[in-house]
């Protein structure tokens, strides 16, 4: 894990120091020596990722090397800080230098030489390089041992009794349907879910059913795991197939070559309908390597694979395929599974005095069957509430030290150990957020970039690489995607409680990060990252933490508190300061001296203004003041030339009115920020609209207070932004027109477009928005029918129309072939909605709100075969009556889940409003 800082340090040292080396005698050798040492440290620490230390001495040794790497980073950052102090020392310091004729590079010489010598001395204080970076001993639990234990546990699922399982019947019937449905083509069924979610148990229970056994001629079950030898898999398949039909297994398998094994396997399977289970698949190349051994004779053969990775499950295998995503147990199912054998002396019924603790412990498992079963085994021997409370309050310790829970950690660690060192650090960083916290995608991306975790990929922005990291963690079931955007990409994630416990345990052992509840005075710690989590807003004073890189605060109850009590002293090397939702009313003056600060988050705080000298934060990359009380930026903001993300709009809280977002006033020189990727949202004043066109790196732009007279300048600026993906424009009031006709062609990569303001006509360039996935028109009040202009947009997946049309009829007569999400809100005159057969074939979500003249459901809604959710708000009583049982439209929506509950809820609200 700590190879990440050494990898980054190599580049940092070379770029910082080597640029000066040519003018400073004797420095080149030191730079080369340090580079060599750090590269060796990097290789050593990467090796430790694959070969775990087996003795305490080795663990201590690895920790020392890791800490030394972090100390080197401190020295380099300190050097940069001192250089910054010298350069910004003020007029008197610069006058003094000129007066006494200090040689230009003398200060640099002394400082660089001093820092280099310190680094070299620290490294040479440890033994010779060969001994320092030798391989770790082979004693202790090896990776192979872990895989053998996991394989044993997986295959034991074949012998589990059905009466010991919970919530499996419906899932089993689904799988059996795919296995014996009569389809003649070879078919692959992928069962996907996080480690311990019951994938193998479900497949094993299906695999052993007599109905399934009778349907196939032969069977094989092999556990693949992360490391496998293809020839060994072939040998296992041959053995399993022969045994399944009670044939003698060939005795010379181990002497056979790859070609001979493949010939034997394919010849055996000719004219046989076979069923194969490939359990615990981690790499899609397995299928490419093994597919030749499974001939397709068009007689209904089936292959089941289980995996933790969504990308493998959804892979195009080149044959018929189905995906079954395992859902974690519901609350009642989890309780039932836990109760079985957890209370043997009470006939498996939870005694009343233990019930609150038992269900709190079950909640910790978040529906993960592996954890529930392991915990019930541990708790079956606990009799008193004191014993139960002890386990509940020290679950993290028990995961690492109690043999009965060892299986949980082993299973979850397999996913963690399979990550690259960069992904490991990104994953561990997520544990800094509180339990069950919803982590926004963009927030994670900006934090990871500020920390330096993101790999440099030529031609790709760090933001794009970081988004791939998130998708990888979700795909591997390390993070759970709670919200997704219109294209299916994660928008917000959270960690399973036990995954978080694992991350906290690993963070502590690696000195990566510390989570602190603020109840005691914190003692000195070695971790570079600190998360304060408190429920009462009170945080005890913290000791000096000059080495801290990340400081995050999470306050549940926003009680007034002084930020000076929250911020530790001496944070000169801090990179991240995240105070979102904290009761902070004013930033202390010390913040502007945080030279290394890359990320400053003041979202949803009561702060009213930023320091005038904020321009001193030369390295700042992200400034987030969204939904704070800051209404104008200081002039110094224009000096933040490294700023990439400036988020500063405010939601007004107005539900059905026109103004729902307010921008922030920026100084006239804000357009000097040429590296800005995100500017959302700036209020239009002066020449902002004309000059914003010079910010050609923008991918997201929001401008409020746009006026009719801005049309030419606005369209000219947009035309220059070739990288723009997300555009939001809003006029000052509902009577102002938003004019965009001068735009000849929109940016080619525009994905999201939101326009708030009156449109006299549909912009003629709408038809060319080929990359658009989301369109939001707010208060447009078009008299012209919009739909013919956008129905052919193949990428459009989300359409929101809010008071966007003044007509009485809305007809979806063609196109919208990939639309998934449709909202129609606040149409005062609309009384008829028509959906032709074949239009919007993929629509899953439909909302009708504040369309009081609509008396019935849209004509043709029954054609929307993929519709899952119908959401109604402020609709007519006639419409509600039409969809309740016995109503004229009930048959059209009765297949939708909870439609009756929806009607009852809306009628309840209607009756309440009348009374």
Automatic annotation (TrEMBL):
Residues 170-345 form the NB-ARC domain. SUPFAM superfamilies: L domain-like, P-loop containing nucleoside triphosphate hydrolases. One of its GO terms (biological process) is defense response to other organism. Residues 9-90 form the Disease resistance N-terminal domain. Residues 547-871 form the Disease resistance R13L4/SHOC-2-like LRR domain. InterPro entries: Apaf_helical, Disease_R_plants, LRR_dom_sf, LRR_R13L4/SHOC2-like, NB-ARC, P-loop_NTPase, RX-like_CC, Rx_N. The keyword Hydrolase applies. Keywords: Hydrolase, Nucleotide-binding, Plant defense, Repeat. CDD domains: RX-CC_like. It comes from the Eukaryota. Residues 432-503 form the Disease resistance protein winged helix domain. GO terms for molecular function: ADP binding; hydrolase activity. PANTHER family: DISEASE RESISTANCE PROTEIN RP (PTHR23155), DISEASE RESISTANCE PROTEIN RPM1 (PTHR23155:SF1205). This is Putative P-loop containing nucleoside triphosphate hydrolase, leucine-rich repeat domain, L.
């Amino acid at each position: 894990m700590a190879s990440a800082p050494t990898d980054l340090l190599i580049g940092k040292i070379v770029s910082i120091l080597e640029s000066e080396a040519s003018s400073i005698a004797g420095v080149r050798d030191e730079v080369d020596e340090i580079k060599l040492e750090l590269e060796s440290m990097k290789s050593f620490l990467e090796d430790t990722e694959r070969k775990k230390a087996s003795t305490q001495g080795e663990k201590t040794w690895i920790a020392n090397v890791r800490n030394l790497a972090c100390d080197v980073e401190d020295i380099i950052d300190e050097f940069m800080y001192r250089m910054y102090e010298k350069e910004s020392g003020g007029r008197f310091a610069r006058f003094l230098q000129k007066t006494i004729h200090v040689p230009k590079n003398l200060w640099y010489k002394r400082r660089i030489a001093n820092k280099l010598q310190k680094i070299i001395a620290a490294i040479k204080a440890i033994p010779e390089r060969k001994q320092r970076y030798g391989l770790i001993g082979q004693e202790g639990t090896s990776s192979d041992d872990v895989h053998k234990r996991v394989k044993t546990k997986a295959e034991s699922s074949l012998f589990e009794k059905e009466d010991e399982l919970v919530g499996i019947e419906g899932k089993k019937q689904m799988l059996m349907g795919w296995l014996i449905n009569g389809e003649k083509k070879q078919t692959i069924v992928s069962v996907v879910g996080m480690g311990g979610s019951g994938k193998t148990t479900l497949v094993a229970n299906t695999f052993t059913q007599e109905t399934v056994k009778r349907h196939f001629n032969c069977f094989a079950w092999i556990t693949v795991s992360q490391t496998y030898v293809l020839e060994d898999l072939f040998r296992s398949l041959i053995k399993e197939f022969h045994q399944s039909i009670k044939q003698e297994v060939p005795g010379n398998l181990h002497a056979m070559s790859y070609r001979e094994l493949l010939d034997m396997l394919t010849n055996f399977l000719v004219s046989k309908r076979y069923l194969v289970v490939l359990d615990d698949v981690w790499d899609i190349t397995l299928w490419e390597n093994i597919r030749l051994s499974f001939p397709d004779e068009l007689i209904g053969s089936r292959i089941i694979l289980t995996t933790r990775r969504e990308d493998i499950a959804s892979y195009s295998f080149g044959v018929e395929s189905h995906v079954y995503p395992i859902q974690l147990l519901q609350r009642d199912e989890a309780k039932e599974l836990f109760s079985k054998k957890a209370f043997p002396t009470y006939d498996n019924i939870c005694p009343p005095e233990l019930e609150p603790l038992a269900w709190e412990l079950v909640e910790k498992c978040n529906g993960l069957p592996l954890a529930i079963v392991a915990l019930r085994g541990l708790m079956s021997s606990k009799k008193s509430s004191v014993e139960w409370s002890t386990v509940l309050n020290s679950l993290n310790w028990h995961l690492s030290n109690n043999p009965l829970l060892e299986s949980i950690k082993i299973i979850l660690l397999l996913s963690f150990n399979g990550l690259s060192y960069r992904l490991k650090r990104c994953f561990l960083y997520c544990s800094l957020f509180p339990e069950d916290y919803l982590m926004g995608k963009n927030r994670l991306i900006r934090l990871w970039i500020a920390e330096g975790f993101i790999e440099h990929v030529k031609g790709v922005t760090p933001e794009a690489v970081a988004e791939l990291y998130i998708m990888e963690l979700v795909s591997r079931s390390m993070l759970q995607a709670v919200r997704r955007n219109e294209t299916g990409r994660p928008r917000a994630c959270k960690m399973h409680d036990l995954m978080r416990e694992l991350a906290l345990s690993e963070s502590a052992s690696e000195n990566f990060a510390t989570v602190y509840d603020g109840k005691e005075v914190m003692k000195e710690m070695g971790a570079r990252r600190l998360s304060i989590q408190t429920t009462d807003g009170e945080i005890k004073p913290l000791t000096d933490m000059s080495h801290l890189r990340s400081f995050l605060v999470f306050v549940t109850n926003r009680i007034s508190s002084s930020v000076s009590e929250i911020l530790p002293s001496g944070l000169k090397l801090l990179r991240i300061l995240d105070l979102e939702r904290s009761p902070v009313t004013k930033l202390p003056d010390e913040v502007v001296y945080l030279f290394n600060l890359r990320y400053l988050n003041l979202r949803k705080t009561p702060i009213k203004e930023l320091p005038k000298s904020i321009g001193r934060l030369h390295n700042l990359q992200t400034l987030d003041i969204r939904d704070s009380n800051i209404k104008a930026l200081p002039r110094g903001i224009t000096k933040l030339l490294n700023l990439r993300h400036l988020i500063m709009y405010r939601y007004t809280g107005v539900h059905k009115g026109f103004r729902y977002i307010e921008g922030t006033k920026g100084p006239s020189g804000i357009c000097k920020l040429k590296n800005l990727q995100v500017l959302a949202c700036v209020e239009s004043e002066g020449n902002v609209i004309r000059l914003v066109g010079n910010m050609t790196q923008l991918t997201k732009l929001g401008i409020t207070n746009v006026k009719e007279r801005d049309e030419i300048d606005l369209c000219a600026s947009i035309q220059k932004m070739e990288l723009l993906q997300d555009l939001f424009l809003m006029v000052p009031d509902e009577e102002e027109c938003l004019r965009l006709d001068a735009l000849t062609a929109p940016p080619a990569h525009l994905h999201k477009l939101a326009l708030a303001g009156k449109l006299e006509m549909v912009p003629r360039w709408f038809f060319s928005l080929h990359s658009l996935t989301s369109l939001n028109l707010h208060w447009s009040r078009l008299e012209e029918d919009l739909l013919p202009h956008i129905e052919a947009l193949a990428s459009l997946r989300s359409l929101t129309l809010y008071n966007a049309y003044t007509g009485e009829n809305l007809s979806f007569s063609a196109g919208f072939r990939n639309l998934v999400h449709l909202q129609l809100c606040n149409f005062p005159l609309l009384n008829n909605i028509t959906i032709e057969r074949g239009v919007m074939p993929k629509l899953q979500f439909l909302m009708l709100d504040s369309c009081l003249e609509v008396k019935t459901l849209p004509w043709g809604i029954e054609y929307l075969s993929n519709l899952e959710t119908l959401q109604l708000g402020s609709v007519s009583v006639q419409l509600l009556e039409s969809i309740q049982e016995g109503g004229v439209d009930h048959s059209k929506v009765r297949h939708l889940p909870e439609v009756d509950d929806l009607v009852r809820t809306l009628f309840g609200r209607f009756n309440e409003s009348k009374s």
